[in-house]
Amino acid sequence: MAGAYNITKHFRTGEETNPVRCFEETMELAIEKNADLIAMTGDIFSFPSEAAIEWVHEKLNNCGIPYMYIAGNHDWHYEGMDGSREELLDIWTKRRLTTLYQGNDPLMASYEINGIKILAIDNSTYEILPEQLEFFRENSKEEDPFILMMHIPLYAAGRPTDYGCGHPSWGAESDRSYELERRERWPEEGHTGVTMDFYDEVFSCDNLLGIFAGHIHRQTIDIVKGKPQFVADANTTGAFLEINFLPLDIKGV
Ligand SMILES: [Fe+2]
Description:
- The chain has helices at about 20-30, 50-65, 85-95, 130-140, 180, 195-205, and strands at about 10, 15, 40, 65-70, 110-115, 115-120, 145-150, 210-215, 220-225, 225-230.
- By secondary structure, the protein is of the alpha/beta class.
- The chain has a single domain, classed as Purple Acid Phosphatase, chain A, domain 2.
- A six-stranded mixed beta sheet has the order 5-6-7-8-10-9, covered by helices on one side. Strands 1-2 form a two-stranded antiparallel sheet. A two-stranded parallel ribbon has the order 3-4.
- A hairpin with a 2-residue loop joins strand 9 and strand 10.
- Helix 4 runs parallel beside helix 6 (about 195-205).
- The radius of gyration is 18 Å and the shape is globular.
- The mean pLDDT is about 90.
- The site of fe (ii) ion (FE2) has 6 residues, from loops.
- Fe (ii) ion binds near residues 74 and 215.
């Protein structure tokens, strides 16, 4: 798995490329477009080395654009290493990924960019912790609109079990990759009640404008209970989403 993306095909040209070149290309484009934020929703690394993390950190710090990062399941995964998903996430976010959070809590953080509130919640274990559910409740209380960024998209009807967080059939039975990825198998009992409560509350939250995620390496859009969920294709191929927020009501037009 660690070497699976060393050589990739560019999403536009189909020509041979690699994740380093693709990351640099995307950063250059963000600078050229004068982006207000670079948002990374995880799986930036595979078998993450200190050198790779330092390289990304340096690139981000030198570009002069604010950035936010939440971990993906591959960012803290060392194939064959013992430990539960929660333990490994906790160890490696603190030990290795820490600089990318810029002092924010790795599991949950709130950002404000040009008046737009963004909640970043780490669901890279496929689960939501009670404190993350509480964080979501607290931050969605106010009437101001906000968006949610996570690594793993939320389940949408018709999508397979490995697509999203909150699929009713997610669990040991539907986990076909644990041997290949050399990791803990998904639990027999499926998602926790907290994760399912989070799922329900996200899609019934009036002031949530939409969700942005990654993980599945395909660009998709789902509408769940009227809320859009956008998934970006993998940046290992140079892909990205350019997101523009426009006011619904432009005064004087
Ligand atoms: Fe992932």
